[in-house]
Amino acid sequence: MIWTGKIENCSELARMETPEITAATRRIQKTFAHLQPSNPIGVSNCANLESSSSLAALNGVEKSQADQPFKWNGWGYEDTHFALNDKGQIYLTGNHYQLCGIAFPKLRPWAENMLGIDLSIDLKKDGSIAQEDMRVPPPIRNEAYLQAINGQYLAISVEDRDRWHHAHGHTCEDVFRARYSTYERFPDVVIWPGSHEQVETIVKSAHEHNVVIIPYGGGTSVAEGLMCPHHEDRMIVSLDMRKMNKILWIDRDSLTACIETGIIGKDLDARLAKVGLCMGHEPDSSEFSTLGGWIATRASGMKKNVYGNIEDILISARMVTPIGTVEKPCLGPRQSVGPDVNEMILGSEGTLGVVTTATLKLRPLPEVQTYGSIVFPNFETGVAFMREIAKQRAAPASIRLMDNTQFQLGQVLKPEEHSWTSEWIDAAKKWYVTSYMGYDVDKMVAATLLFEGGHEEMKVAQKRVYAIASKFHGIPGGEENGRRGYFLTYMIAYIRDFAFSYYFMAESFETSVPWSKCLNLCESVKQRIRDSCANRGVQGKIFSTCRVTQTYDAGACVYFYFGFRFQGLQDPLKVYVDVENDARDEILKQGGSLSHHHGVGKLRKRWIADAISPMGVNLLKGLKQSADPKNIFANGNLF
C-alpha cells in the first residue's frame, strides 16, 4: 500500500496526549463547566484543542475497528470462525467475543440433523481457492485523473488484495465467488480520503476526467451494492471512507453531534460512551458497517424502538456530488422548506454522491441494560403478542420473535456445561415448559428482549411487557436466553461461512409487512423457499426460517434465512439466485416490501418499479441526471 498526504495536525496532537494530561484536563473542564458557553465543542482547529481535549483524545488514541484484519473470503474478523476441536465439537476461534475458545457440544448434532451437512468432509478437498491463488486483472489507469488528485488523500493502493477486498460485499453470491470462483470486475484503485475537502477534489476530478467512483464503507452490503458493473470500461475508484472517522463536535445542550461518516458503529459507540452519550443505532453489522453506509441504505437497528431508525436520528447530511455539495445548514429539529433534502440522500445507495459528514441526535447513555426472554407455545401466539406490544406501544429497546427453528438454534449455542447444578436446572426448566405447561418442543418459539433506560423506568417496562405476555400464554425464559438470542445475531454470518466449507450455502433477506398480513407472509415465504428448492433439484434438508425483528404501529419487519446443500448441483449460484427471486416474488405477492433496511442494490432492482411505481423510478432518474449527468457514481444500484 502506498501512503501519501498528511494527517490533520489536531489529530496528531491528540495522539500525543498522555493519560495524565487528559485526566487533568477533564477535571478542569468539569470544575469550570458552568462558565463554558453552550456552543458546540470540537476539534476542527488547534485553537479549540485544549477546550475539547476529551474529544480529540477519543478521535486519536484507540485503535479503530477499520485497522482490524478481516477475512478476504468471508465475514468478520480474520481470526474468528467456527471450527472443530480435538473432540469433534464445534467451537469459536479468536478472541473478539466472550465465548471465543469455548465449545458448543450441541451445535454439531443440530447442524448434522437440521442442515444435513457432513462434518467429516476433508476441508482440504472442498474446492475453495487459496488466497495466494486469487487472480486480479491489471488495473485500468487514467493517468490524467491520478495526476489531478495527487496528494489529495491519506492513502492510495492498486494492490491485488485491496482491490479484491473492495470488489464485493457479503451476499451469498459474493462469498461463493470469493471461495470458488472470482469477480467479473474489480476496482482499479482504492483511495482513502482524509477530509471533506479531499473528497470534493477527488469527485470533481472524476467528473472532469470521466472516472467512476463507488463509495465504500464497511463492505457489509448484502444487496450487491459494491459489486462493480462488469461492462464498465472506465477506471473505477473504490472510495474507502473509513479514515474519515472523527467526531467533529458535540453540542451537549442540544444532544447533537457532527461526525465523519467513515466511522464504524462499534467505534462510534465506544467513543460516545466515554463521554456518557450514545446514538443507539445498532444494526446486526455494527461491528463493521459505517455511519455513511447506514445513511446510504436507510438502515435500521436492533434498538430502533427507543432510538429510532437512521432517518429518525439524522438531522443533516453533507453529500458531495460531481457538480457540487448538498447539505442542510440549519440544524433545527424540524423544517418546512419543501421536499426534504435528507430524504434524497437517505437510501441513495451511492448513486448520487458520497456522504462525508452527518449531524445526529444523541441520547444520554442508559443507566441499565437488561436482557430477557419469553417462551410461547407456537409462532401464531407469539405474533399475536408482538402485535399487542406494538398496539400498546410497550416495546422495549429490542424485541424479536424467533420461530421454532431459530429457537432451537439458539438453544444449541449454549457453551459446554461443567456444572451438575446447571445441567439439573436446565432439565427442570425443560420439564416445566414441556411436561407441566404442555408446550411442544417442535412448535414452541421465543421472543428475546433488551431493556435500556433508568432503573425505575426499566422496572415499569419489564412489568408491562411480561404482563402482556402472560395474556398470550407466555412464560418468562430468563435473562441468559435473551442474551444468547442477542449473541446469535452476531454469529449467523460466521455460521453461514462455516457451513459453506461443508457444501451448504445460505442467505438472509428481510421485508416489512402490515400486521394483518404478517403471519400469512411468514408461512407462505418459508413454504415457497422449500418448494423452489425442490423444483430445482436440491437434495437433502432445506433450511427455511424467519423471525419478527422490529415492531411498528402498522406492521413489522420480518427477517428470513434459507439454505441448502449445493454439492452435486451443476450451477449452485443459479439455483440460489432463482430460489431467492422466488422468495422475493412471494413477499411482494403477500403484501411485503421490497426491503426494510438492506436496500435495493443490484440484487433487487428488477422489482424497483413495482415497489415505487414507474413514475417514481422516473423521478429518481431525474434526480440522478441533475446531480450526476456523466454517471460518475455508476455502481448500478437502484435502477
- For the report, how would you describe the main beta sheet? 7 strands, antiparallel
The structural class is alpha+beta
Distance between the termini: 34 Å
Average pLDDT figure: 89
Could you walk me through the main structural features you see in this protein, from its secondary elements to its overall organization?
With 639 residues, this protein is of the alpha+beta class. Helices cover 37% and strands 18% of the residues. The protein contains 22 helices and 23 strands. It has a seven-stranded antiparallel sheet with strand order 20-17-19-18-22-23-21, with helices on both faces. Strands 2-10-11-15-13-14 form a six-stranded antiparallel sheet. A five-stranded mixed sheet has the order 1-6-7-9-8, with helices on one face. Strand 13 (314-321) and strand 14 form a beta hairpin. Helix 15 crosses helix 18. The two termini are 34 Å apart. The model is unreliable at 1-51 (pLDDT under 50).
